Amino acid sequence: MNAARQEALAEYPHLYIGGAWVAPVAGEVVESIDPSTGRPWARVAFGGAADIDAAVQAARVAFGPWSRRPGHERAALLRRLADLYERAAPELARLESRDNGRALRETRADIGGHHNAWHWYASLADKGSGRTIPIEDSVLAFTTRKPVGVVGAITPWNVPLMAALWKLGPALAAGCTVVLKPAEHTPVTSLELARLFEQAGFPPGVVNVVPGWGAGGAGERLVAHPDVAKIAFTGEGGTAKAILHAGADSLKRYTFELGGKAPHILFADADFEQAINAATGSAWALCGQSCALGSRVLVERPIYERAVEEFTRRAARVRVGPALREETHMGPQAHAEQLAKTLGYVEIGRREGAQLACGGRRLEGDAYGAGYYVEPTVFAGVGNDMRIAREEIFGPVAALIPFDGEDEAVALANASSYGLAAGLWTRDVGRALRVSSRIEAGMVWVNTYRYIRWSTPYGGVKASGWGRENGMECIEPYLDVQTTIISKSGRFPDPYAT
Ligand code: NAD
């Protein structure tokens, strides 16, 4: 038996409910797979409907006192959490890389900055002010903001901590309480996050974490629960539709961060080297498993061949390997189904007539073991009507599409059901302004790509979702508006006097 086989599995036997670590009612424990090896590395308790019910009840009880607590006190707790999170970040990055296979150099950079976001949300906790509304002099009309209630946060496997951060931060700042259900493939870091909330001294029930299944399991119960006021969801569009059906009876509110097929437009007048740096990096970051990646690379015809060559040359430089290895650029796909999906799309691309310029195979053998590795892949000669250009692959597959001129670039960019993000590279400021304003996307980056910060709103249009996370706007979906109108005279005429 080799050393890796002898390694004991990490044990996560409890859910975090009402400030206590409890075993799941049905006793379900699921092995979490390390995608770098294809073998289990942790055993994690999974909750079901009864555990969700207990978590929602705990969040309901906690809601009153938490929502009435002065904003600066909620902020102080969030800042304490931010400090603990900053200290824990190196270990959180290691665990996240282990659980979802994202290269450690990426998780370190990403999670290493999350404490700034927790501080940002803290800074919003006492800003939920209303306004006075001028009407007749006889009344005073004003609005106040009130937290919506218990929030169900449902997160995906590609960025578990970031997705949790973007939901829990504004929800808690607003005065809501939360039940977090992380993705079944990557539950570990959300439980580690619960430990930090406990250490920071958050009152019991304000944050509850229940790993579990989605459809037919904890996720579905959370969505259907009548005492959950709002669902904050990141994941696939199909799941969002199922959530809308399941939540219909209780008329919930929703924010949805869904898929993307972002156009990354390279005009011929761009700084070619910089544009290629961004375009290759964003095609293969997270092993292609991020909604905002520039997976449709639109290249102006005079530089098209050069771009295909350069993509192919860069692909050969990408070091694919185990997520925890320092030199690894790109880890494996996060789970076996995603690996199969990506390889399936490579086949679809070939059959559709796109030219496979490089990559497209699973990497197997001694160095890769049973891990879910796939080569960085480049398709040339792609038409925007092909499935590999229309559908979200979520693998490291760049589809290079040629275009002629600004109008065609915009038309191709917008010929997508998605509208999350877009990027464009040009030295012409006028063109940058013209094109960015015509693109249907929640975010447009010019001469940069995937520049994402806690202070800038993030979210999509069309099939990419509803609402925004981050920015000043992030707190809005967690607050209701109450309008109060007070008569200065207190006189109310008898409507039946005459
Ligand atoms: P998914 O929709 O399969 O699962 C997301 C979460 O929903 C998981 O926790 C899952 O257990 C849960 N779930 C599944 N079915 C459910 C149901 N019927 N009721 C309640 N919960 C249910 O998505 P995924 O495969 O984990 O993540 C990949 C998707 O997420 C991609 O489409 C990607 O583009 C999207 N994503 C979007 C953003 C963004 O900000 N726009 C960010 C990251 C990921």
Largest sheet: 7 strands, mixed
Strand content: 15-25%
Overall mean pLDDT score? 97
* Total beta strand runs: 25
Number of helices: 15
Gyration radius over CA: 24 Å
Strand order of the largest sheet: 15-18-19-14-13-21-22
Distinct small molecules:
nicotinamide-adenine-dinucleotide
What global shape is seen? globular
Structural class: alpha/beta
Amino-to-carboxy terminus distance: 97 Å
Short structural description:
The protein contains 15 helices and 25 strands. It has helices at about 5, 50-70, 70-100, 105-110, 115-125, 160-175, 190-200, 220-225, 235-245, 270-285, 305-315, 335-350, 385-390, 405-415, 430-440; strands at about 10, 15, 20, 30-35, 40-45, 130-135, 140-145, 150-155, 175-180, 205-210, 230-235, 255, 265, 295-300, 355-360, 360-365, 370-375, 375-380, 395-405, 420, 420-425, 445, 460, 465, 480-485. It has a seven-stranded mixed beta sheet, sandwiched between helices. The protein has a six-stranded mixed beta sheet with strand order 10-9-8-11-12-24, with helices on both faces.
